[in-house]
Amino acid sequence: MGTDVIVAGAGPAGLMLAAELTLAGAEVVVVDRAPERSGQSRALNLQPRSVEVFALRGLLEPVLDRAQAKVRDGHFFGQTLSYTELDTDHPYQLVIPQADTELILEARLAELGVKVRFGQELTALEQDEDGVSATVNGEVIRAKYLVGCDGGRSAVRKLAGIGFPGTDGHGWGVVADVVVATGDPSVRSDWSSMRDVLPKRSASENGFGGMIPLGRPGLYRLVFGDLTSPLPDRAAPITDEEFQAGLRRFYGSLEVSEVRWRSRFTDAARQAERYRAGRVLLAGDAAHIHFPVGGQGLNLGIQDAMNLGWKLAAVLKGHSTISLLDTYESERHPVAARVLDTTRTHSLLAQPENAGARRLFADLAVLPAANHHLANMVSGLDIRYPMTGSPHRLLGTRFRGLRLPEGQGLLLSDDPRNRDLARHWEPRLTVAPDISTLPSPYGAGVLVRPDGYICWVEGDEPLKHALHTWFGAP
Ligand SMILES: Cc1cc2nc3c(=O)[nH]c(=O)nc-3n(C[C@H](O)[C@H](O)[C@H](O)COP(=O)(O)OP(=O)(O)OC[C@H]3O[C@@H](n4cnc5c(N)ncnc54)[C@H](O)[C@@H]3O)c2cc1C
């Protein structure tokens, strides 16, 4: 059998990518080796940029329905970052377990006609000039492209021979969803600020511990660990003894009556040396892993998928050349590299010898300009993709304020000549009939890519050039 794209892995990145590809008209097969969804809460938050992305795709309502809290700030090394002044309609993190985010994305994908094939593991791949042959449960599936969204230990990445350089962890952590028998007076059951749940830090003991309420009475996300002593064996199971010792260390008398799942993590940070090898691409954790502090991993993967989906579909349909696909790596690699840098900074600040740096950071991070800078960064709102041409301040930034036609670009221009020109690219883009609803920062007009980023601003370079660059031949 043959298809356009095999997506290996149906986590958040794979599900989002499959939906984006389908919206843009590509045929997709999604396989996942797990027999079914794990239901684990794992990533607990959608950052403001991800909330905007869900809104762009008409998925705001289901995420709001399932969200357990709206939190008005983020954090960086324990310093809260105020989101309330961010330039967005969604100046908050949504607390929503990863399992719920996945359910919403999977339901969306099913509406688009694609069903995830669970219990199907990719174990081998070969590529040639025309396509990729992937071995899944012993059978070969043929596709024009393959995208590995198969997580941090990605088989696709290894089979494609893509290196994963980076740094080993300084330390380790344990994460668990627990039901507590006796309440902890220091933990709130409802919350709206990171201040309510930030880890209890014990610099003298070099450890950290924290609890986040999970929306049901007694149910909490418990995290504890130590960033100063490397984990001897990542694969070693967490013994009851170790778990109880961690619990006692940070929460003294707290009694846990049930552990729903528990897992280890480290602050290792690694990034794929390239995001494409021929017809094989990577997205999400397959392309980057880092310390899960600050809640950015799932959010990165969602945005990798938004960036890649429409580009790969345009190349598949023959509208665009491979140079469009190459902008996936040139745009997304630096974004993840920066998250790796900043999460490494967390680990460095935690080292005992860096007490002076911690004091300096604490002094700086409360300054409004610094706080705002960090908030813009962690929220994902300050991403600006490098685009050649004009230095206009809006170019490469996200477009906000209107829902986009799905899978398509959008031209908003008050110049009828521009609107006539752009019609040659329909239906890859929609030409808005009038721009009276355009939010004011956008002036006389903008061209927006299907992923919601501005690729041309009226009054700059000729529109024709931007149309060819981003939407291919007319
Ligand atoms: C404890 C914990 C807490 C976290 N907290 C946060 C947070 O608060 N905020 C945040 O943004 N991020 C957080 N993260 C990170 C977040 O969970 C990951 O970044 C996110 O899951 C990555 O999504 P993904 O789709 O790239 O990969 P994954 O979710 O790992 O999905 C990969 C999928 O691929 C499948 N697969 C693997 N190998 C194969 C194969 N060979 N063939 C077929 N299928 C395969 C797997 O079964 C899996 O379903 C946390 C992570 C952990 C572990």
Automatic annotation (TrEMBL):
Q: Which SUPFAM superfamilies match?
A: FAD/NAD(P)-binding domain
Q: What domain of life is recorded for the organism?
A: Bacteria
One annotated GO molecular function is: FAD binding
- Flavoprotein among the record's keywords? yes
**What Gene3D superfamilies does its record include?**
3.30.70.2450, 3.40.30.120, FAD/NAD(P)-binding domain
Which of UniProt's keywords are assigned here?
A: FAD, Flavoprotein
Q: Which Pfam families match?
A: FAD_binding_3, Rng_hyd_C
Q: Which cofactor does it need?
A: FAD
The family database entries (PANTHER family) matched by this protein are listed as: BINDING MONOOXYGENASE, PUTATIVE (JCVI)-RELATED, TRK SYSTEM POTASSIUM UPTAKE PROTEIN
Name of this protein: 2-polyprenyl-6-methoxyphenol hydroxylase
Source organism of this protein record: Amycolatopsis xylanica
- Upper lineage ranks? Bacteria, Bacillati, Actinomycetota, Actinomycetes, Pseudonocardiales
